[in-house]
Design the sequence.
């Protein structure tokens, strides 16, 4: 089941990534309306956009693969969540709130790989939905006029409260929630092992 889940999530992410790219090309082939900083701030073109997306995907794919298939749960004697997290990353139970440079990097890699799925898929989904609204409006102004007016209000909210990138804001939230969920899952495995041992 873990293998199936992994590849299904990868497929969903890639499908959304390709849909985002295709809709971007349909609506702004010259990238004049593209919000990616590589284009909007640095003035780079399709080549840089494609390379950046491929590199990011490879890095996250490697981390996700490690998280799902290679990472081995670290068992400690800690019975508190914060102490457990501190122990597996800093090698001591009292650095959770004060530690800066981790002693053990593998839990960070595994947690990042796990959190990639909710964060990446959510971000891509938002971008695809935004482009779909623009595409529908361009295709048939009269039929989708009200939807587009809603989109304009949405964009105003996005610029005011999210710096124009709701996808990035929500992806960051999803990422940190995903890391926490993964860490808590690892902690739960330890508690279950302790319970079995005690019996």
Sequence:
């Amino acid at each position: 089941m873990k293998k199936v889940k992994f590849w299904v999530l990868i497929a969903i992410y890639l499908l959304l990534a390709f849909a985002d790219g295709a809709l971007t090309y349909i609506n702004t082939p010259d990238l004049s309306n593209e919000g990616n900083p590589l284009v909007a701030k640095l003035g780079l073109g399709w080549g840089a956009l494609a390379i950046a997306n491929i590199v990011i995907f490879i890095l996250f794919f490697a981390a996700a693969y490690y998280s799902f298939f290679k990472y081995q749960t670290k068992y400690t004697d800690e019975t508190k969540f914060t102490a457990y997290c501190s122990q597996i990353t800093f090698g001591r139970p009292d650095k959770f709130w004060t530690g800066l440079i981790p002693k053990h990097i593998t839990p960070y890699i595994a947690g990042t790989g796990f959190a990639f799925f909710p964060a990446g898929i959510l971000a891509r989904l938002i971008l695809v939905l935004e482009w779909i609204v623009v595409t529908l409006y361009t295709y048939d102004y009269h039929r989708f006029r009200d939807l587009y007016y809603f989109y304009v209000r949405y964009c105003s909210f996005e610029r005011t409260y999210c710096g124009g990138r709701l996808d990035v804001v929500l992806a960051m939230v999803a990422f940190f929630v995903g890391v926490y969920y993964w860490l808590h899952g690892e902690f739960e495995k330890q508690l279950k092992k302790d319970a079995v041992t005690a019996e």
